[in-house]
Amino acid sequence: MTNSYAVPAIVAITLVTVVIGAFGLRLARSTSDFLVASREVSPHWNAAAISGEYLSAASFLGVAGLILKYGVDVLWYPVGFAAGYLALLLFVAAPLRRSGAFTLPDFCQLRLGAPWLRKLATAFVIFIGWLYLVPQLQGAGLTLRAVTGAHYTLGVFLVAGVVTANVALGGMRSITYVQAFQYWLKLTALAVPVIFLLGHWQRQGQPPIPTPTEWLLPLVGEEHGLFATYSLILATFLGTMGLPHVLVRFYTNSDGAAARRTTLVVLGLVGLFYLFPTIYGVLGRFYTPDLVATGETDTVVLALPGAAIGGLAGELLGALVAAGAFAAFLSTSSGLLTAVAGVLSTDVLGRGSVRSFRWSAVVAGAVPAALALRVDALDVSQVVGLAFAVAASSFCPLLVLGIWWRGLTDIGAAAGIMAGGGSAVGAVLVTVVGPPLSGWAATLVEQPAAWTVPLAFTVMVTVSIMSRRRVPASVGAIMLRLHAPDALRADTPR
Amino acid sequence: MSEEKPQRVRIVLADIPRPSRTAATRTELTEQTHVGDALVRGLVRAQLALAVRLTAVVAIGLGGLPLLFAVAPVVADQRLFGVSLPWLLLGALAYPFLFAVGWAYVRLSTRAERDFTDLVERP
Fold first, then answer.
1. In this predicted structure, what is the pLDDT of residue B2?
2. Hey, where are the domains in chain B?
3. Which residue ranges traverse the bilayer (chain B) (predicted)?
């Protein structure tokens, strides 16, 4: 299914990304500009940027592929990806912005005053960031191979190279504009073909879509389906707030109220986007049934316009979708890379100067690129789901308890992260490199959130209570800082 | 590039409230007197209660669906406007529902903060 218009479309999208990045480069002068866009980004730009960054290969390609393959049960993936922003809004957005923390390690130090806890948080940020970057690069390789027949390695290197250069040279200011632009591009690239596809299906007289029972109805023919579903719900609802590239963005809001408004707009934008992958998945049952047979369901979004409509229109729409897919890889990878490079440059390789940020970006991009070359057999959506589970079992309890509970201590936080996050990391490693499991063991390892998240919360609370004397003396002042309305600090210089 | 270091410090330590005016209650807040402490605790509790209530709305309204489908499979077999009910609920209606809950939260929490501000700034 090579598409002769796809290459120009992908080249164009990559060039536009570089050009907007370069445009931002001229504006980025100080470290503050570089890392957080000097906090001058308006809520609407910021919301589009957050959404653009968030809608990854898993959203753009993976969700439709999963729906094509498994049907109604996986509709919880997009619902959870969107609902994660509601949890973020309810429990984290405004206080986190007011805390002034730029990264999760910053939050640890600020809230618990323990420099050693930074190291643990940094390790988890890097693990989650790389776990999430690998499938993005992999998706790029698969897409380029699917639409042009190019070698898998080329797509990986193309995206890794462009993104690393862009982040290293332009920093955050430039990617704010890149990301905002890419949200609208992704929405267009998915929505416009849907209009044509549905119109085409109407003109054909609405041929019935084959709907086997286990595909159409929930919890049919799946082992431990209810447990797996709730585990998925927990991971996605609670994991979003712990993703490093999501949190970094909140610092670019001007104050707590703006952070809330931004999050609400994001919830709307992301929800709007997720209406479309479902339609691809459903129409794919009729137009591209062979993908189910071969197991290449991840490419349904790319293949559908050509298979259903065909001709010049089909090819052009296919090229549009391929461009959107590349926008997804570029934008999510940029955000992840900025986040990972940020903690690398402040906590591991340097002290947060522009130079160390640039070097960190190179390291942060090179490692997942090398990993992506080795693991092209891994399932894209599954890995992303595991990244959510790790985030939900480590940073979600840290943030929620840190913001709302005075009793959290540094030892409690560390114990909770090690117990919950550590178990989730173990589950990831067993899933990716371990032996194939069956029965309950398989369910517990493939969808770990239902036990690792409660474990993390329980351990964090219990150990904190046991080490009550270590509650920071400044906790009252910190609570005030996190929760006092913005109006009460109007006289504070921003 | 000599301005790099001070800039970085500003990032990490941004927004420590340093009131220059001396409204009495505001001083009580920042100096952690008993009154100030009670005020902040009250606000935090109110905001948390709001977030938890809205979480319960989502937990029941959306989180209850898998259980409902498991307990009463006949519900999952219904059709509305020619679309299978679970598909309609999860594929489309879940998103406006989530947005509505978020919208309600922004309104209510902003109002709670305004009330708190009025209380503190009251002469």
1. 43
2. 48-123
3. 50-75, 87-106
